[in-house]
Amino acid sequence: MIVVVPILRRRPVPLLTTVVAALAAAGCSFGPDQPETVVGEFAAALEAGDVQAAAELTTDPAAAATTIGDVFDGLGVDGSGTVRPDVNLAGTSDAGTFDLDVAWTFGEGQDWAYRTSGSAVDLDPQGWRIEWDPALLAPDLTADATLSYTTTTGPAPSVLDRRGQPILEQQVVTLVNLDATADPAAVAPLLATAAPTVTPPSLAADVAAAAGKPVTAVTLREADLAPIEAQLAALPGVSLVRQTRLLTVDRALASPVLSGLGELWQEGQDASAGWAVRLVSGDGTTRRVAGADGPPAPDLQTTFDLDLQTRAEAVLAPLQQPAVIVAIEPSTGAVRAVAQNAAADAEGPLALTGLYPPGSTFKTVTTSAALQAGAATPDMVVPCPGTANIEGRVIPNDDSFDLGSVPLHTAFAFSCNTTMGRLAVGLPATALTDAAAQFGLGVDYVTPGLVTVTGSVPEAQTPAERVESAIGQGRVTASPFGMALVAASIAHGSTPLPMLVEGRPAVADRAPGAAPEEVTAALRTMMRETVTGGTASVLRDIPELVGKTGTAEYGDGTGAHGWFVGSQEDLAFAVFVAGAGSSAPAVDVAGRLVRG
H/E element holding 206? Predict the structure, then answer.
């Protein structure tokens, strides 16, 4: 009996299959130089992955070595001793013909078994040898053919927005490769029609840096290639190589979430993988001789709103400073848009993981903590002086405006630093930390397709620390994503679990619970007053909009970031403009986003 079970390094599976290789009865006994011996040694050499040893036991060692080596290479057999075929010789008959049952295992559920037949001949004085025939290794194998194992994938799925519009699709692209003989002066003008930054000097520098190896000058979509393909193909030293890639349907679309969606798409493709063993003929034609297709990968349905994303990118584009927008649906946690301008893109995924002092937008948290602690009510009259010395820290209002004594809701609407600093002094050390967590700030979320950080609100052990934290400075940090979640939590009354892919909400590292409904209701009223008559009154024409402005000092205090967080109906959002100097640019962006 002979067993051949190749086990591949890519998915080693220890498996032994016992089969019978029967030498046809001839009525004689066997010694060490009989056909049983050569068949067993041949099988053992295959088991060891020893191409040369197996070949030497045949009538044509050179041809056998070539074919066996090619088959082993094509099927992924490793002859190093780590992963080898398993062969078991269980018995023979007494003639020179035999059947060989072969079983290959390429992975779980990927088994290929078949039977071949062969002959052993006595080549005096060499002794018995396997009569070489490539078909001994696999049915229909010939001297000019080989076998190849590959994984397979079905039709590529699309990544869709909430309305079923495609965001990402697999598309054909072409790599324009140049070797050392290419003339940059001839190539650059053609490529510049699709890639304006390509110039003869830039191409020459790329070719020189490649030190004689081919270099990819640019990758073109089909629409960009078509007008110049014939001219490029005719140029010496230029080769065009086609590939498939997952690309945005709209080339102008850019968002930090796209990379995560691409990873999820690839996971779906990997899960849908099948396998195939192909018989590759000398003329290059192939025929599948074993394998199975995998299950089709479904389209990836996201919560993204492509129209809102496009609008968000458009309103950010004119800004020179890094600027971002994050929009979340309060009722479900669905992420509707994550947009950045070019300056932000150059610094990374600021919208999702950039941490900054939230400034006065954090007064939503401070006010919530004060209301829950019973330190204030919305209508309680509080002082709002232009400046105040609180615990040795001189706190000014913006431009030192002075409202005198006003209801808390008015101090909130006009963003009185002095009021908030004074309220925080008497709060417990954990009050701001706990109130922030009730709005998702400081909570970690694992969201399929998203890598996010919400922020950090450390416990404020001293009154001075609480003063700094109360106005969103000191050690308090937040990401735009984190502040959008704060706005969504206030709008909804509790923090929704973020979600980018339909049906796959985030998992939070903890569940702090919600602030009391009367507190979030009061905050919504104060945030509406901020829009109708406070620091965001330029947006008063927008129905039902609630919000909070924020200016946050950073560095040595000479610069400031601008914020606006708010919601309208079932859409909450945060706008962040780095180094804006005030909240005005963020407020302007919010207005153009919502009015659009």
Answer: helix 200-209
